[in-house]
Design brief:
Elements lengths: L1 H41 L24 H8 L14 H23 L7 H40 L4 H11 L4 H13 L4 H12 L2 H16 L3 H25 L1 H24 L1 H9 L1 H29 L1
Length: 318
């Protein structure tokens, strides 16, 4: 029985890696297409410099990064974005290792000592999941607040206020995290960094195509002139429609998300109630090797099921 379970676990791990690689390749392809669309939109108006100099390219990664930076990149942690995470790395990483070790202990009845080999990759996946979730939440807040920030800039420019002063107004009046991002941009301009360079840095920090397009619009307007307020109004309208569409999608998928939550919580709640009624009956799962095996298989099945439902819901909303 043990070899079959070991083979099944290996196949599941390979399937998970294949799905992760597929999703990563699709995300990279989508970013490439977004960059091409932005280039196609902005290229007819660019005369002084190529559009690649304006903003849409990502920061280059050094070929030889320090070992600590490579390790941070492996677990999905970016030291420059430490303020975005709800917990510091020295709390998140040990917690991920502890959870991975707990999972290995539960799987020890099936895999034996081989379960310890899964602790490092499981801890890395947990860390990447946590930091990725925090980054996605931060970007979603920036996206939701962007239309209001653009509206502030449009109103300021229409009454004759320079763009740099309009950015200062956004830094003072916009809520976090938009206010802090624009405050950092304003501080860069104050110490002599060109506005275009600061906007490029803002687009790279945010990781959002809308911010990079905003930087492109400001850069092109500074080079070629044109109606900046109209471009920013159109961008704000597009972002508002996108946020509204996301909200509608989440509302329509609320039943599926609730079902997934109920299915995830039901086994734990049922086990807890049975433990209250008959502790000795449920205690077999925690006190015997066969119980550890059953508990590990159940936890693995539950994780796979919840992950599959979450992936289906996210792909549907995308």
């Amino acid at each position: 029985m043990t070899p079959l379970l070991l083979l099944a676990a290996a196949l599941l791990a390979l399937a998970a890696l294949a799905v992760a690689a597929l999703l990563a390749s699709r995300a990279q392809e989508e970013r490439r297409r977004t960059g091409q669309r932005l280039s196609a939109v902005a290229a007819p108006h660019a005369r002084a410099r190529p559009i690649a100099d304006v903003s849409i390219t990502r920061a280059e990664t050094p070929a030889r990064a320090p070992p600590l930076m490579r390790l941070a990149a492996l677990i999905g942690f970016d030291p420059a974005k430490a303020a975005r995470y709800p917990a510091p790395w020295w709390v998140a990483v040990p917690a991920a290792v502890a959870l991975a070790r707990l999972g290995a202990a539960m799987a020890g009845g099936v895999l034996g000592t081989y379960a310890l080999l899964a602790v490092p990759p499981a801890a890395v996946m947990l860390c990447r999941g946590f930091f990725g979730w925090a980054e996605a939440r931060y970007r979603q807040k920036l996206l939701v607040q962007l239309p209001d920030a653009l509206a502030m800039i449009v109103r300021a420019v229409r009454v004759g206020i320079p763009v740099a002063e309009a950015i200062r107004g956004v830094a003072q009046e916009a809520p976090a995290p938009t206010g802090s991002e624009f405050a950092q941009l304003h501080d860069q301009v104050l110490i002599g960094v060109p506005l275009e360079q600061g906007l490029r840095d803002l687009g790279r920090r945010s990781g959002l195509g809308e911010y990079r397009f905003f930087a492109t619009a400001i850069g092109l307007q500074a080079q070629t002139g044109g109606g900046l307020t109209e471009v920013l109004e159109n961008l704000a309208d597009v972002v508002r429609k996108r946020v509204a569409l996301q909200s509608r999608g989440r509302a329509l998928s609320s039943e599926a998300r609730t079902s997934a939550l109920v299915l995830a919580v039901l086994p734990v709640a049922t086990g807890g109630m049975i433990y209250v009624l008959d502790p000795a009956y449920v205690g077999v799962l925690f006190l015997s090797p066969k119980g550890h095996t059953l508990l590990g298989v159940a936890a693995l099945s539950l994780a796979i099921g919840v992950g599959a439902m979450r992936m289906i819901i996210q792909k549907t909303l995308a």
